[in-house]
Write a structure and sequence with these properties.
Ribosomal_uL22_CS; rRNA-binding; single chain; three-stranded antiparallel β-sheet; RNA-binding; alpha+beta; about 30% helix; Ribosomal_uL22_bac/org-type; ribosomal protein
Amino acid sequence: MSKPNNPPRTAENEAKAVARMLRVSPQKLNLLAQLIRGKKVDRALADLEFSRKRSALEVKKTLESAIANAENNHGLDVDDLVVSQAFVGKALVMKRFHARARGRASRVEKPFSNLTIIVREVEAQA
């Protein structure tokens, strides 16, 4: 009398990786997500390797994790993988205060974000 298992939320030819609590604003992280969306994984890794953005290393680690999940957990061919989805979500925002002139204070917001990358296996084109 146990509960039935949850069905998998991704398709058979997909694998995903999630990076949570990245210390970068979602707006800045979304620029890198746009950079790799829809590309083959080897091209996306090369773009992230030579990107000058600070958070490119975290995005690259997440993409490599999605590739490893596809290969080890789902048995997909790495050469046929494409970044099908890459999206960014908001996490918590730390609020801090910065001392200003004449006894005032300004609020400093330090946002965190979550990154989800889904890779899909596509058939090699002849």
